[in-house]
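Hey, why these numbers?
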Amino acid sequence: MIIRPATIEDIPQILALIRELAAYERDPLAVEATEADLLREGFGPSPRFFTLMAEVSGEVAGFALYFFNFSTWKGRSGIHLEDLFVRPQFRGLGIGKKLLCSVAEAALANGCGRLQWDVLDWNQPAIDFYEGLGAKFLNEWRIMRVSDEALASLAAAGGSHE
């Protein structure tokens, strides 16, 4: 098993993995990202995300995609793990753990105060896996999101910032 940083050549595989993850999470039509989006946002001069690829015998087995955030309480950066996915035929080999450990290593190497991610409430195997690695399920926090038309409406409601 090899864990390595993604390269531009991995973009088609990254997008395929994102689509497989969306299907696993019961929302296969939700993926709007394109290869051009991944190229622009993750592989330019100032990447907005980073990706680790897991390979077994030269075959892509999974990935972890993360980005940096900032904790006002900690007073330093953290990492948000956006996606962690291992293809079904490669599960049970320790790949998910190795990917998560590699993201944790990146957090420490960058002086981050914490590593966080979201998990669907129905995904008990993932919750059990994460708790077994020392993660705490923060039941009292809820994710809030605005997107698409709601995002545009919210921005417009603020008026000018002049």
